[in-house]
Design a protein that fits this description.
There is one protein chain. It is built from ten helices and nine strands. By secondary structure, it is an alpha/beta fold. Strands 1, 2, 3, 4, 5, 6, 7, 8 and 9 form a nine-stranded mixed β-sheet that branches. It has two domains: 137 residues, D-Maltodextrin-Binding Protein, domain 2, CATH 3.40.190.10; 109 residues, Periplasmic binding protein-like II (D-Maltodextrin-Binding Protein, domain 2).
Length: 286
């Protein structure tokens, strides 16, 4: 339900309904989820991680869930769909994203190393591990924190051609370039890369489903400050997002997330997502 109403009495009614939902009340209005068909998160066939999470939250709110599909990449959902009131909730937004109001995180996770179980690249606990310099190709997403740490380690030049080959040498300068998460995993499975570095939520499904046994291990913290004293963050909270003027819906979602916590955790574990406790970073990831 949109938070904006042109008439005073309708505004009052929206606030009243929002408060009822926050208290656990039901509504016949569908919970409109902004979505882009990008596996493993939202998928038109309903198999996506976010499809299942949204359905669990909708059930806790006693509201039907309606996915409003975009033909654009998910990074444009806030600008082109949520802000234009074509839908009301975006899944999988970094906790604290300044464009929106975000719920309490329904999970926290981190970037991970992916390697073959029969390789010598397990249990890397520091970025100065000499094995990283010996890896034959490291698969990372263009513009991601993984690419940033590769640059900070001085390993970018020898991996650059390989990394850009994964996106057909497209330049991210004037366009959004997305690398399918499944590709990162398949590069390791096929032996084209000794390591891949990606966000756990992106790749957990493919690691779990791989016919070749793989490892998925959390990357260590960045301990080498950049030129301005900054560190690269690898841990992130994931939240549901609403428009900044939709505090009643935010409250209702937070209440529903508390109620649906067991179901949410079960879904995340079935996907194989690496779950962390504690405070995650609140900056954008790619």
């Amino acid at each position: 339900m949109s938070a904006f109403r042109p008439l005073l009495w309708l505004s009052a009614l929206a606030i009243t309904c929002g408060n009822a939902q926050a208290a656990g009340g039901a509504s016949n209005d569908p919970l409109r989820i902004c979505a882009a068909d990008e596996a493993p998160y939202s998928q038109r066939d309903g198999r996506g991680l976010e499809n299942r999470l949204a359905e669990a939250v909708g059930a806790a709110m006693q509201r039907p869930v309606e996915f409003v599909w975009s033909d654009k990449p998910a990074i444009y959902l806030v600008r082109d769909y949520l802000d234009k009131q074509r839908c009301d909730v975006v899944m999988g937004v970094d906790t604290g994203d300044p464009r929106v109001l975000t719920t309490a995180p329904y999970y926290r996770s981190s970037y991970v190393f992916i390697s073959r179980a029969d390789s010598d690249f397990g249990a890397i606990s520091a970025w100065d591990d000499p094995r990283l310099g010996k890896a034959r190709n490291i698969a990372v997403g263009v513009g991601s924190p993984a690419e940033a740490i590769i640059k900070a380690m001085g390993l970018y030049e020898e991996n650059m051609n390989y990394i850009y080959s994964l996106v057909d040498f497209k330049s991210p300068r004037n366009q959004y370039v997305r690398l399918e998460p499944s590709r990162l995993v398949s590069e390791v499975v096929r032996g084209n890369a000794d390591l891949a570095i990606a966000f756990s939520g992106d790749v957990a499904r493919y690691v779990k489903e791989s016919s070749v046994p793989l490892r998925m291990e959390a990357v260590p913290p960045d301990t080498v400050a950049g030129k301005e004293g900054e560190f690269i963050g690898f841990e992130y909270g994931q939240s549901m997002a609403v428009r900044k003027d939709d505090e009643p819906l935010l409250a209702a979602l937070n209440a529903a997330l508390d109620k649906a916590h067991p179901q949410v955790q079960s879904i995340l574990r079935s996907e194989g997502v690496l779950l962390l406790s504690g405070k995650g970073e609140q900056s954008a990831r790619n």
